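Design a sequence for this backbone.
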């Protein structure tokens, strides 16, 4: 096992564990640690004024330190006390898997950390975003339940083929934008590809719509009133640039509603508008409102068509509770309702998320087809027939019979047996020597073996994935592109060593180093680096070495002149130091 488990992680299904990777804490460099410390110090200082009260409380409850990148093992030890856990992954994972982790009360944390050059914002998920953004807020019980429920509903949302293509394109863009040596032309090409895909998605899928809701709440949500909002979205909590910008009048504040599902977003740009929920309870209200529009709850012909369009493994549930899981490829209709449904390839039958004995993918390896609806001329649906009714209509073992459905489907064969659900309703009738037709079209031949006819007047639900997770081999994930680790040069290694010395001095593990010597080396050999001089300024001020502090400030003024883009970062860092020393 590549990670330390606990009782929450033990409950994860095997197919989710394929995304988990070891955190490899020892791979974090002294510069990584300095980036974490700078962002967290700045965040806590600023967010104490503008974040929801749960944020600062949550930092304490989840054991997230300002001084050190969190160790996943330590986080899990504390998170499990509030019923959650965290796992490390490699960058973006498919949206349905991300949401399914949430359904199991597990935070997915991209264990990489942004480079110093992207300290304010990165389009790539990283441990600052996930660990310092998502984790603290889940200490709020009402929000934590919203997150879990969102995952539970979201992982059932049906995707389109284009959704996965967009996911791969966004993942690629996030990887190369965070990589230190990426070619600008390559980045522009990747951005153009994402933009083209976004503009040609067609009718948005359920997954696309619910992903929008996730973005405008979990990632970029505000809470309170449009006149006085507070931050709770992880994307804002972890971005020292956007958390400040979002509070200005340049960002439009809208009241949150289900309409947010139809507002798309661009991960590469600051958001031009944000949505404000009055409280966490309202988030759940909108989520349930959206779920009512999903095929998960509406079923019907529309639900089957969504599954066919997705070209992916999905499930329909009939009014008897019988669940058919497979790749749906065809549906015949009658007066706007499904009259016959068909899967291709491996299919499994279940009841209440548990596979029926004798109806695994081994038994239905070539697909499954069945009529839906009532019998012609009989107002009583088969599932509503009592044993006496079934006898009256000759639907019982040993009878050779022709069943003609309202939609024109005919099933002719000898009944062997019937399978009932817990209520005693017939959910499946098995025939031998069976022929299934619609007019002149043959849908099933006797030589194909036994015919298992699903019983159900209606399709009440259609959703992504299998009913029983054990029915299919879901270990299919293969990473097409891994996140790019920064190249280590001799100069970078020496700079890392200087950061390490300063860190050890501050922590008291090595107080023999000459801070002046470190400063001179940075000044002479790494004139563009600004973060280490800021840390040295902190040490100088805390030791009342005013001359040294002045010398550092003079150097940082030169850095600002040569690179104005980092000027506000330097100023903010110095201000934090001065503020922390005021008694």
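Sequence:
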């Amino acid at each position: 096992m590549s990670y330390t488990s606990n009782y929450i992680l033990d409950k994860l299904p095997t197919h989710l564990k394929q995304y988990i990777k070891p955190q490899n804490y020892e791979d974090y460099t002294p510069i990584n640690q300095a980036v974490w410390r700078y962002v967290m110090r700045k965040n806590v200082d600023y967010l104490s004024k503008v974040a929801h009260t749960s944020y600062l409380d949550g930092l304490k409850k989840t054991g997230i330190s300002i001084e050190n990148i969190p160790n996943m093992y330590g986080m899990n030890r504390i998170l499990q006390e509030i019923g959650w856990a965290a796992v490390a992954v490699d960058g973006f994972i498919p949206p349905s898997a991300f949401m399914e982790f949430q359904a199991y009360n597990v935070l997915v944390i991209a264990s990489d950390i942004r480079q110093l050059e992207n300290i304010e914002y990165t389009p790539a998920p990283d441990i600052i975003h996930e660990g310092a953004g998502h984790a603290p807020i889940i200490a709020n019980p009402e929000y934590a339940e919203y997150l879990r429920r969102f995952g539970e509903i979201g992982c059932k949302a049906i995707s389109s083929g284009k959704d996965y293509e967009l996911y791969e394109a966004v993942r690629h863009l996030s990887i190369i934008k965070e990589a230190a040596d990426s070619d600008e032309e390559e980045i522009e090409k990747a951005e153009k590809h994402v933009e083209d895909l976004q503009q040609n998605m067609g009718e948005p899928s359920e997954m696309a719509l619910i992903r929008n809701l996730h973005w405008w709440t979990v990632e970029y949500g505000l809470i309170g009133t449009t006149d006085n909002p507070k931050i709770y979205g992880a994307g804002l909590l972890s971005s020292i640039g956007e958390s400040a910008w979002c509070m200005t009048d340049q960002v439009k504040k809208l009241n949150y509603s289900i309409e947010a599902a139809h507002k798309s977003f661009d991960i590469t740009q600051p958001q031009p508008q944000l949505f404000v929920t009055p409280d966490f309870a309202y988030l759940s209200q909108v989520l349930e409102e959206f779920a009512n529009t999903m095929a998960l709850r509406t079923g019907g012909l529309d639900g089957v068509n969504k599954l066919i369009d997705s070209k992916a493994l999905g499930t329909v549930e009939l009014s008897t509770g019988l669940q058919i899981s497979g790749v749906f490829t065809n549906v015949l209709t009658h007066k706007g309702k499904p009259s016959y449904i068909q899967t291709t390839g491996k299919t499994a039958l279940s009841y209440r998320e548990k596979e029926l004995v004798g109806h695994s993918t081994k038994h239905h390896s070539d697909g499954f087809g069945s009529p839906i609806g009532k019998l012609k001329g009989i107002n009583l649906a088969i599932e509503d027939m009592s044993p006496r009714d079934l006898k009256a209509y000759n639907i019982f073992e040993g009878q050779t019979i022709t069943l003609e459905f309202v939609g024109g489907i005919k099933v002719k064969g000898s009944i062997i047996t019937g399978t009932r659900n817990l209520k005693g309703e017939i959910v499946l009738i098995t025939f031998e020597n069976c022929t299934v037709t619609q007019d002149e079209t043959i849908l099933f031949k006797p030589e194909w073996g036994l015919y298992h006819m699903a019983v159900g007047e209606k399709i009440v639900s259609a959703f992504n994935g299998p009913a029983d997770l054990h029915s299919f081999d879901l270990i299919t994930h293969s990473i097409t592109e891994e996140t790019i680790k920064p190249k280590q040069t001799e100069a970078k290694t020496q700079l890392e060593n200087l950061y390490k010395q300063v860190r050890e001095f501050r922590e008291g593990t090595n107080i023999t180093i000459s801070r002046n010597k470190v400063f001179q080396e940075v000044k002479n050999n790494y004139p563009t680096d600004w973060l280490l001089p800021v840390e040295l300024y902190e040490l100088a001020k805390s030791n009342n070495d005013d001359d040294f502090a002045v010398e550092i400030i003079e150097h940082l003024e030169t850095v600002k002149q040569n690179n104005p883009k980092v000027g506000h970062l330097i100023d903010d860092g110095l201000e934090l130091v001065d503020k922390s020393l005021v008694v």
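The radius of gyration is 29 Å.
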